[in-house]
Amino acid sequence: MLGYGYSEEALNNAFLQNPDVIGVDAGSTDPGPHYLGSGHSFTDSEAVKRDLTLSLPVAVRKKIPFIIGSAGGSGAKPHVTWLCKIIDQIALENMLNFKIAIIYADVSTEYVLDKYSQGKILPMGRLEATQESIQNSNRIVAQNSIEPVIEALDGGADVVVCGRLCDTAIYAAPAIRAGYDPGLAFHMAKIMECGSMCCDPASASDVMMGEIEDQYFTLTPMNPIRRCTIPRVAAHTMYEQANPYLIYEPNGMIDLENCHYDQISPRSVCVQGSVFKPTPQKTIKLEGTQLAGYRTIAIAGINDHNTILHLDEILTGVKQFLSENLNDIPSSDYIIKLRSFGVTANDISCGCEGNLGIVLESIGKTEEMSATVCALARSSMLHYDYQGRKSTSGNLAFPFSPSDFKLGPVFVFSLYHLCEVDNLMECANIVYGEYKNGKKTN
Predict the structure, then answer these.
(1) C-alpha–C-alpha distance, residues 175 and 308, integer Å
(2) Residue 56: which H helix or E strand, with range?
(3) Measured between alpha carbons, how far is 271 from 252 in angstroms, rounded to an integer?
(4) How many helices, marked H, and strands, marked E, lie in the chain?
(5) Mapping DSSP to helix (H, G, I), strand (E, B) and coil, where does residue 169 land?
(6) Can you tell me the distance from the alpha carbon of 422 to that of 419, in angstroms, rounded to the nearest whole number?
(7) What is the pLDDT of residues 397-432, one digit of tens each?
(8) What's the rounded mean pLDDT across residues 142-157?
(9) 3-state class of 130 per DSSP?
(10) Using an 8 Å Cβ cutoff, are 394 and 322 in contact?
(11) What is the pLDDT of residues 240-295, one digit of tens each?
(12) CA distances (Å), origin 143, targets 90, 107, 426
């Protein structure tokens, strides 16, 4: 993951192998919908610049294509722009000359509404897509596959910066473009996209070398402290897959039922038998977000076992207190939640020792409403009386002052669906540019 760091020694070892292409994933939906909705990156700009400063200038000077997937974390236009500004700095500082292709993955609500009206928006889980949820989306991206990356490389790009992109496309695209088997290419890419997680010891923050041949591919970590093993490589094949024998991609399925893994050296594993099966209907995943409100939290601890035993009663009483004191505000305009960590009332009843940490969360239609609800709930919970309570002071212990934290806007996924497409380039917009002596010329 770009911005997570890696071994400089491992990178230098990789360059000694004269690689044909360098790739790095820069995004994920793992951190949730906030970053897509807000347009912010979940990685730090200085950390991203460090990772690129070590690798990008060398790649450009050696004429090795450099591919970045899901720029800025979520791959929407603000994220791509953010990453490109970092590239601008590195290009100028190193007086670099290269051609860049930027692949935008943003799609309009009109595009999605049209697909929805045709019945071409398909659920991936329990989240329902409606005309209202599509219209209320503040940002929607399409998770593109290999096609726009191949087109960008065909267009002569030295550096390819992608908006939202399938992780596998970063590594599969150049291999398939070079004529290698798609089944092997996608399988190799699936394992490589998490760095050295297929190694012992595992790490998402290190350098992996993949080499593809006509009938097999091999994986070797570039950091000498790591080694690829059959259990780790096979296990990472199953990563994020509902079925251990099938990997689904926008343009087909990779069948791994007859795959074979060989330990060809103490640090390298060879894989063969991966088969690509095209599907008649191509699909691209859409990710969309909408604003749900504003969040305020308070963090506290409960050290009294009697209070822990009455926690459900206390929370019910707090909600009743809020309803009575905020009767001019519809209850639908705010949400109050309590998350607990540590021992439970059942543990205490069974004689277990321990304390309880809680996070009190409020989400309101406005930031002011959210703060008001949290403050009332926190003060009510702090002094709430219950049967058998011995103390006359507070129920809660606060590690911070101030105790309440305004966390800003809350976004939820409005779309996490497949979209049937006629052409896998439908949601990709490629823009080319060039740097001369570190400066953009167009």
Answers:
(1) 58
(2) helix 45-61
(3) 20
(4) 14, 21
(5) helix
(6) 10
(7) 999 999 999 999 999 999 999 999 999 999 999 999
(8) 98
(9) coil
(10) no
(11) 888 989 999 999 999 999 999 999 999 999 999 999 999 999 999 999 999 999 99
(12) 27, 10, 11
CA–CA separation, 149 vs 4, rounded Å?
23
By C-alpha distance, which of 324, 335, 384 is closest to 361?
335
Give the SS3 label for residue 122.
strand
Q: Which residues, in sequence order, are bridge partners of residue 408? A: 295
Residue (of 309, 296, 316, 304) closest to 381 by Cα position: 316
Q: What are phi and psi of 407, to 5 degrees?
A: -105, 5
The DSSP string of 184-223 is HHHHHHHHHTTTBTTEES-BSSS-EEEEE-SS-EEEEESS
Residue type, 148: P
> CA angle 275-278-284, nearest 5°?
120
Q: Give CA–CA dist 42/76, Å, rounded.
A: 13
Q: Looking at this protein, which amino acid is placed at residue 270?
A: C
Provide the edge-to-edge strand list for the sheet that holds 22-27.
22-27, 66-73, 159-162, 98-104, 429-436, 439-440
Per-residue tokens: 97 = 């000359």
Q: Tell me the per-residue pLDDT of 67-118, one tens digit each, with 9 for 90 and over.
A: 999 999 999 999 999 999 999 999 999 999 999 999 999 999 999 999 999 9
Please give the structure tokens belonging to residue 274: 């991966």
| Residue 338 phi, psi dihedral angles, 5° rounding | -125, 120
How many whole angstroms separate alpha carbon 442 and alpha carbon 433?
5
